[in-house]
User: Which sequence fits this backbone?
């Protein structure tokens, strides 16, 4: 076979094969991205469901605190009794319309109340925001700050008389209530509750799992806390076996097709050569009698 013709046959096989390999690699890459995205969406939906469960519990707690802080004329003795009987409340506080702290009374505070006055320094600095009663200013809400070992949260309610009654949540009880809503085990990974600094407040599942996390922040007032899921192993990716089998089948088909065309081409060449040989032989056989006839003529 001529080199030029051989090159053409090779190109007829290799060019489509290269195109098929490129398409196969592209399909496998897209499948891997699709599988990873579906996995992340599945875990994210699960974390969002847990966040919604915690948010509903927070809404229930907000309704309870609205009732507890609905005190038209705050009495220190009453507030201290409420603090002792409410396990999720650590301290109550009252801010007068002029911004002064009426409870806990700075001059007559217990040791726990003095600790609260020191612990809630950020709250006292921002207390004027609670007293605003203009249009668009909410009559109640949450206030969070950091102190010592982590997040602190307080609920406040402004009354028509102008004073504000609030309650600081017990951080340990708050954390325990959130943990109680989380599953004890999770398949194929580790579920962690972390704070804004990345410190782990709680974790469940395989503690050795430490792959990049899928993260969902909690709803207010716990927005600085996050739910994180760390898979135990990387997401199972498609191997692309079917794609490569298809590429191999296409390659075999191309080789068979090229062999068929090569065979047909060589067969036609042999037939053409046979026809030329036959004509040459006939011409040779006719040449001798014609020569004799010309001689006798």
Assistant:
């Amino acid at each position: 076979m001529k080199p030029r013709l051989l090159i053409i046959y090779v190109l007829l096989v290799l060019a489509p094969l290269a195109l098929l390999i490129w398409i196969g690699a592209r399909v496998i890459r897209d499948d891997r991205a699709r599988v990873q995205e579906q996995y992340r969406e599945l875990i994210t939906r699960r974390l969002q469901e847990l966040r919604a469960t915690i948010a509903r519990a927070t809404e229930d707690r907000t309704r309870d605190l609205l009732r507890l802080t609905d005190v038209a004329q705050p009495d220190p003795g009453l507030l201290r009794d409420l603090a002792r009987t409410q396990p999720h409340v650590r301290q109550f506080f009252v801010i007068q319309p002029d911004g002064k702290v009426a409870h806990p009374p700075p001059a007559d505070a217990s040791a726990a109340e003095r600790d609260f006055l020191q612990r809630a320094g950020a709250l006292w600095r921002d207390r004027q925001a609670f007293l605003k009663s203009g249009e668009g200013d909410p009559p109640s809400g949450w206030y969070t700050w950091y102190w010592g070992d982590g997040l602190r949260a307080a609920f406040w309610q402004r009354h028509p008389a102008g004073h504000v009654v609030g309650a600081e949540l017990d951080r340990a009880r708050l954390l325990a209530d959130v943990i109680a809503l989380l599953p004890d085990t999770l398949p194929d990974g580790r579920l962690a509750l972390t704070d804004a600094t990345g410190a782990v407040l709680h974790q469940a599942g395989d503690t050795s799992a430490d792959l990049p996390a899928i993260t969902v922040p909690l709803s207010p007032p716990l927005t600085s806390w996050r739910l994180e899921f760390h898979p135990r192993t990387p997401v199972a990716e498609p191997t692309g076996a079917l794609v490569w089998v298809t590429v191999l089948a296409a390659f075999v088909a191309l080789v068979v097709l090229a062999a068929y065309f090569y065979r047909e081409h060589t067969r036609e060449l042999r037939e053409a050569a046979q026809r030329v040989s036959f004509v040459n032989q006939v011409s040779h056989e006719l040449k001798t009698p014609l020569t004799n006839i010309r001689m006798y003529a």
The first helix runs from residue 3 to 68. The radius of gyration is 42 Å. The chain has a mean pLDDT of 82. The longest strand covers residues 150-158.
